[in-house]
Structures
1.
Amino acid sequence: MEVKYKLTFKGWNNSLKKNKLLGLKCRDCGKFTCPPKMTCQECGSINLEVVEMSGEGKIVTYTVSYVPGEGRYVEAPILIVMVELDEGPWIMGNLTDIDPNRASIESLIGKRVKLGPHSKVYPGDAYSTGEEAQGGEARPTFIFA
């Protein structure tokens, strides 16, 4: 039996470029998987359906990066957050509502965020070549809710 991805990286990337966060809902256990994988991250089922997720949740951890990726020097410093979505999965993205140099545990952990009005799209770097990243890679961008 051949198993195919219900939602490929290319499809997920293209949806982010349109500011839509897609994920997968398991028809067996009801849990959500995002970013997409071939199987449910909870029960391992392949009985999945593509759904649009709310893009809302709370910050569970963060880091500030002062070392940008190759060719992305204008990004530094960058505030990277891990968001627990209301649907359950954790997803990484950028937070743009606060100066990265002012980020603190008190100002971020547990705070409500939502997908911002525009996900950032970056050209591929030396490590992200191929058809999947053609036209650049989208990165989820969050703002305070």
2.
Amino acid sequence: MKKILLVTALLTMSLFADFKSIGVEEFKKLQKEGTPVLDIRTAFEWQEVGFIDGSHKATFFSEQGQPLLADFFYTLGTLVKDKSEPFIIYCAHASRTKVLGDGLVAMGFENVYELKGGIENGWIKAGERVIKD
């Protein structure tokens, strides 16, 4: 029940929040500067499509669409120690990151970025390399 309330709150808050969508060049610049990158897709997607080198696997939605709050926030907490620290999130097409990113900003995170177009319509279409396990 707590998870349902938290997800509902995140989705509701996302209506009033805003965060930054960045292109591939800005993404690479921030990553090179040490900004953590979290890939919020599922393990299946990592295997099928690959992932961006240097990104941290931090699934937010299960393959059934259920939020994995504890796992995601544990990984986020190991990378981002203060709500003012920047970090980047990405998914397949930037639809899941919009929901999550808006919710994170509403929770007080100040520097949340998403990869515009996600890994498929942003990164791969720009001709950038992915890693496959």
3.
Amino acid sequence: MLELVESPVRQKKSLAEKNQLPDQFQRELVQMFKLLSDETRLRVLMYLYREAELHVSALCERLQQSQPAVSHHLALLREAGLIGCRRDGKHNFYSIRQTHFHRVVAQLFQNIADPGKLEFRFDEFTVTPRRKSEA
């Protein structure tokens, strides 16, 4: 004999539930923002963005820091996947891995955005683009 079973009722997810960040992505994002909270690492990224590629000695000169200190910052950025390294002879040349950085930022905004509006909602505030007359 067949028994009629009702399908479970699907509850609509709230906007907050829809915009939850996956755990792995959230950890990656937290790590990236921790790295970017350091002034030296931000300056490293700025120089790499401007020059496209630099070796450690050039970064040491620009940052006015020792080679071990700069290498430490580079290692942290490289481990996070924000920069890449290319070896040429005895020099390591560093550059920004733009596709990774852009993917992380794009995924962040995809997860917090309401596609129907030109704004990004966070728990306690909303970011909306300025209109040209407001600038």
4.
Amino acid sequence: MANYPINYHLYTFFWNKYRPVILKLMVDSAKEPQQYQFIQHEFKDINPKEKGGHSFTLQIFNSKAINNIKSSVVAQDLLIMLEKSKKSIELTEEATYELILDKHFMLQVSRIEQEATEEVETTSEEVAEDTKPEETETVSK
């Protein structure tokens, strides 16, 4: 009996087919979260016995997953496709994106602004530091 290599990238062709749609969703998510409904049979035809189902959550920044996707081959193949896209690389350098495929095959794409969160934290720390020296000076006078 011959040993045949296992195809680890079952979903890569599928994600490449939908690359323009996914990139448009990522661009449009700057205004508001976006959704796209996939057809169930497309996933089930690729791998009907997918353990754990096809649903996943992928958070991506600088073309790298920032959450654990080791248990989802579907998410890993999506990440491979995004890593090869110039537009995706540009987008993920600016912000974090969260892509969620639910059990009903609805893909939800959200843009999470990291810089805004960091600026708010820095501003509140600066305000706290600025008020402390003034209080000390007032007390010592």
